[in-house]
Design goal:
Blueprint (H helix, E strand, L loop, with lengths): L1 H30 L6 H22 L7 H27 L2
Helix pairs in contact: 1-2, 2-3
C-alpha cells in the first residue's frame, strides 16, 4: 500500500512543478525575459508531468501554437501511455 502513496506523492509534486514551470515560462515570454528551454519542459513531461503540461498548454495558451513542440509533447504522452498499457497487460496476463 505504501508504494501507491509514494507514487501519488511523486506524481503530485511533479505535476505541481510542471504547471508552475509552464506558468513561469509563460510569464517570462510575455515580459521578454530568458525562457525555460523546450528540452526542460519536455523533460518534465517525461518525468510524469504531462497531465499538467496539457492543462498548462491550453489553459495558459502557452506553446499551443508551436506544432513542432506539440508533436514532441504528444509523442511523449503516447509513448508513456503505451508503456503503461503494456505494463498493465503484461502484469494481468502473467497472473
Amino acid at each position: 500500500m505504501t508504494i501507491w502513496l509514494y507514487l501519488m506523492a511523486y506524481l503530485g509534486v511533479v505535476n505541481f512543478l510542471t504547471y508552475a514551470v509552464w506558468a513561469m515560462d509563460k510569464t517570462y515570454a510575455t515580459h521578454g525575459a530568458r525562457r525555460v528551454s523546450e528540452r526542460r519542459l519536455l523533460g518534465l513531461c517525461l518525468l510524469g508531468g504531462w497531465p499538467s503540461a496539457l492543462i498548462g498548454t491550453y489553459r495558459l495558451r502557452h506553446k499551443s501554437s508551436k506544432p513542432s513542440f506539440l508533436i514532441k509533447m504528444y509523442s511523449l504522452i503516447v509513448l508513456q501511455l503505451s508503456g503503461l498499457g503494456g505494463l498493465i497487460w503484461y502484469a494481468t496476463a502473467a497472473v
